[in-house]
Amino acid sequence: xxxxxxxxxxxxxxxxxxxxxxxxxxxxxxxxxxxxxxxxxxxxxxxxxxxxxxxxxxxxxxxxxxxxxxxxxxxxxxxxxxxxxxxxxxxxxxxxxxxxxxxxxxxxxxxxxxxxxxxxxxxxxxxxxxxxxxxxxxxxxxxxxxxxxxxxx
Length: 153
Description:
The chain is α+β, with helices and mostly antiparallel strands and 153 residues long. It has helices at 65-85, 106-118; strands spanning 22-23, 37-44, 47-55, 93-100, 125-127, 137-146. It has one domain (35-146): CATH 3.30.1330.40. It has a six-stranded mixed beta sheet, with helices on one face. Strand 4 (93-100), helix 2 and strand 5 (125-127) form a beta-alpha-beta unit. The longest helix has 21 residues, at 65-85.
């Protein structure tokens, strides 16, 4: 699983504490614009924790809600890709929390979130606190999914 989240994919996999957030290159084709995302992936026996944040300052102040919804769609797509690459399934969602800095964007993001979560097991919710690892994020998603333990765990 080299390259997911940057650095050594097993680094800190069993250590307590916050996930290290690492900027990654755009997961889209080279023709697409680079995304201002930070991600953190932590492997634990029986669980996978994925955090994806859209960084503040990347969007203009007072950006309209459609921009925020587009940014959130990018966060969702990146999260799905990381979970898939880690060999886990979104059918095993244990928890999912989403932070949105702009209050006016919350209804649109919440609608996308509930549509996304309705296709999977588990529940998702909006939270008011920014992610600890990326307090400057415009959007943040913290997802924990259950996964079978592997011999490497």
